[in-house]
Amino acid sequence: MDAEIEGWPLQKVLEHVAAQTRWQIMVEPGTSRFVTAKFKNLKPGEALRKLLSDLSFVMLPSTNGPTRLYVFKTSVQTATNLVAAPPPPAAVPQLIPDELLVRLKSDSTNSVDEFASRYGGKVIGRMDDLHVYRLKFQDENSAKAAREAMAKDNSIGTIESNYATPRPGQPNSLTGLDAIPALTLRPAQTGNQIVVALLDTAVQPDGSALGSFLLPQVSVSGPSQPPSDMPSHGSSMAETILYSLARVSSETAESPVRILPVDIYGPNESTTTFDIANGIVTAVSKGASIINLSLGGTGDSPLIHSLIRSARDQGVLFIAAAGNEPTLAPTYPAAYPEVIAVTALSPTGEIAPYANRGDFVDVAAPGVSLVHYAGQLYMVTGTSTATANVSALAAALMSNATKDPAIVEALIRQNLAVTALAPKP
Fold first, then answer.
1. What is the pLDDT of residue 391?
2. Which pLDDT score is estimated for 151?
3. What letter does residue 211 receive in the DSSP assignment?
4. Domain assignment present for 424
5. Is 189 strand, coil or helix?
6. β-strand partners of 165
């Protein structure tokens, strides 16, 4: 192990150790100090002694789970606070160099396949009702040449690049902790439903508490087979929404909320601008009141923005992650003014050190969640988790207080506002 740190709080040190090693770290409540250390190529035990100084620690390797590290002043039994490892930085969306997204004008009489062929491309994705098409070309130079030629075509409304966004990471497994209580919230059998669309990886209907809260899953990117031995990111977000919803509901409550899983990744290692746009269109067509976007990137997509504006005019709330980079740079789609941008809070109630804190951020919520899958406990962290928590609150407000989305949005912005930041422009 290597380290070069000066004056770091113990909590930050332990979070970084957890992130680098994937250990499950427990610390005695109230244990705090500042750490300064510099070393290279030390064995774990020697490195921990340098980092922890006079604090005691016990490290328990495991063959069927993460290594557990207990840090304490008095006894190992007092190390009861779980250290939440920060999520890995979000992968930067990558340009798909040989593709373009084209939106034809509504009065265009072109056959789209003939249109694509005229410019040397092939249609590989389509949203016919919106006249939006995903075109693939022979190579990057062919796509550039086609874009230049299309710019002079009066039948075309917009042209933009297509970007690939890698799928989110998996949650961390935990051992030796008490199980979270069973979900007591029950789905209401009568009345109108409040539909929360979850644009994410595929959700596993079995092995968790999701059960009858799930609507039939829709995939816009082809069939996928989620892992059988751990929850997918989508399942983790869905369970976070349900447990957060239960916390703001009465113990005997029946909820009209349903989760609509919209798989925008399919079997692929990434989603794309086109798939996200298609997912939004699908969610709106399926009656979503709230669309949860626990994803984001640096690319500003006119297509996605126009779809969000249109759906927002219909009363759909959009809630999106601000990103897991401690920068001020905007993350899209969270940075669009029609979207509630969510950053993450640490367990101490401050903005998490890994979380984006740019002036586009609207609200903050807890960035840590514990979820169950197939009898195993997992931890998920990040602005994705915070976004799911805000979506749950929005659904609860729609269920119990008001169904007016404008009032719900105003309540969320007021009650969860990040007051230290400037408002979104």
1. 97
2. 92
3. G
4. no
5. coil
6. 271
For the chain, helix (H) and strand (E) counts, in that order, are: 9, 23
Place of tokens 């709230």: 290
Backbone phi, then psi, for 310, in 5-degree steps?
A: -65, -45
Q: Are residues 242 and 122 in the same domain?
A: no
SS3 category, 103: strand
Q: Which amino acid is at 297?
A: G
Domain membership flag for residue 88: no
Q: Which amino acid is at 102?
A: V
Identify the CATH number of the domain in which residue 272 sits. 3.40.50.200
The pLDDT tens digits of the residues spanning 257-290 come to 999 999 999 999 999 999 999 999 999 999 999 9
Amino acid identity, residue 313?
D
Cβ contact 191:222 at 8 Å: no
Residues 156 and 76 in one domain: no
Which residue segment(s) compose the domain that 102 sits in?
94-165
| Residue at 421 is within a domain | no
Domain count within the chain: 3
Q: Cβ atoms within 10 A of the Cβ of 310, count?
A: 15
Reported as type and span, the H/E element at residue 394 is helix 383-400
Instruction: Indicate whether this model's pTM tops 0.70.
Output: yes
384/361 Cα distance (integer angstroms)? 14
116 and 52, same domain (yes or no): no
pLDDT digits (tens, 9 = 90+) for 174-195: 876 777 777 878 888 877 889 9
CATH value at residue 47:
3.55.50.30
**Positions in the chain short of pLDDT 70:** 62-65, 89-91, 176, 207-209, 250-252, 401-402, 419-425
